[in-house]
Specification:
The chain has helices at residues 54-62, 88-99, 101-129, 136-154, 159-180, 201-223, 242-265, 286-301, 318-331; strands spanning 6-10, 16-20, 23-28, 31-37, 41-47, 66-70, 76-80, 274-276, 282-284, 303-305, 312-314. The protein has 343 residues and is of the alpha+beta class. It folds into two domains: 6-80, CRISPR-associated endonuclease Cas1, N-terminal domain (Ribosomal Protein L15, Chain: K, domain 2), CATH 3.100.10; 88-331, Four Helix Bundle (Hemerythrin (Met), subunit A). Belongs to the CRISPR-associated endonuclease Cas1 family.
Length: 343
């Protein structure tokens, strides 16, 4: 199991990253804001376009420290990594399966089972914890509907059909999402997903959380020698980390959605943490991103017992654990890929 090292987040848009010895130096208008030793970093995430020095990128690439560039609202731009150290046999197996739609469906359905199961668990947990604040009948009906879809997914061997079933489950789950927002309803409501750009406060948070989770998953896949850009459910598209999107499906609800709901319901963020641009896009303020990222890193440090491995790990290691299990399946060490089924 990989040790969970620190991720350095650079939240200001006008900070330039450079190298000084074994340290990363943060520069703003040629003034030094700070320096951080690189030996205890696993990744660097920077928001904006100012950039990083070739020396720093080379140093990080050589030591397997990824540098990810995001826009201010968290949209992925680029990721700098070193040479692939993965097992070529493992990647060739990944590519062969990806080229076979039926074989891809056999793996992809486990990603979807994990996603729907975890969304069902969230719904059941809400009915248990807040029985007087929710429409229990509606929640129970959706939970039962998700159970029915899971049974259909288990025997599905067609990717298009699988996507259709996943879509049905997502529609049912999303109908309840607004009810899961228990606080600050006047400023945080969910009427449906809006992505590029996010058009309300909730979607701004969800998009940011999904970007962070996708980045963590891509790093985990590269770490076990898999190609994050060649997926099974999400097909090839230039610039899209399809396998990272595949594998994060089972963590979207239980990790990202639940995290966003916690921020809202515990009032860690409020309406003043967002602003709307002329094109209607809703963006988090710089201070809001700091609060979000601090909470995200704290969440990654919380310990859980992995449902398949039976070992205590941090939430931050869950993407690495699932990437490792997928690699073991592709190598033939496991009969089936075990999705992350949380309770």
């Amino acid at each position: 199991m990989r040790k969970l090292l620190n991720t350095l987040f650079i939240n200001q848009t006008d900070v330039y990253l450079s190298l000084d010895g074994d340290n990363i130096v943060l520069l703003k208008d040629e003034n030094k804001l700070g320096r951080v030793p690189l030996h205890n970093l696993e990744s660097i995430v920077t928001f904006g376009y100012t950039g990083a020095s070739p020396a720093l990128m080379g140093y990080c690439a050589d030591r397997n420290i990824s540098i990810t560039f995001l826009t201010m609202n968290g949209r992925f731009l680029a990721r700098v990594i070193g040479e692939s150290r993965g097992n070529v046999t493992l990647r060739k197996k990944q590519y062969r399966i990806s080229d076979n739609e039926m074989a891809s469906a056999h793996i992809a359905r486990n990603f979807i089972i994990g996603k729907i199961f975890n969304n069902k668990w969230m719904i059941e947990r809400m009915t248990r914890d807040y029985p007087l604040r929710l429409d229990i009948q509606k929640f129970k009906e959706v939970s039962q509907h998700l159970s029915t879809i899971i049974e259909e997914v288990r025997i599905c061997e067609d990717l298009e059909r699988l996507r259709g079933l996943e879509g049905q489950a997502a529609i049912s789950y999303n109908r309840l999402f607004d009810q899961m927002i228990l606080q600050q309803k006047e400023n945080f409501s969910f009427k449906g997903r809006s992505r590029r750009p996010p058009l309300d406060n909730v979607n701004a948070l969800l998009s940011f959380a999904y970007t962070m989770l996708a980045n963590d998953m891509a790093a985990a896949l590269e770490g076990v020698g898999l190609d994050a850009y060649v997926g099974f459910l999400h097909r090839d598209r230039p610039g899209r980390a399809s396998l990272a999107l595949d594998l994060m499906e089972e963590l979207r609800g239980i990790y990202a959605d639940k995290f966003v709901l916690t921020l809202i319901n515990k009032k860690a963020l409020n309406k003043d943490d967002f602003f709307k641009k002329e094109n209607g896009a809703v963006i988090m303020t710089e201070e809001a991103r700091k609060k979000f990222l601090t909470a995200w890193q704290n969440k990654k440090q919380e310990k859980i017992t992995h449902p398949f491995l039976g070992e205590k790990i941090t939430w931050g290691l869950v993407p690495h654990a699932q990437a490792l299990l997928l690699a073991r399946f592709l190598r033939g060490d496991l009969d089936e890929y075990p999705p992350f089924l949380w309770k």
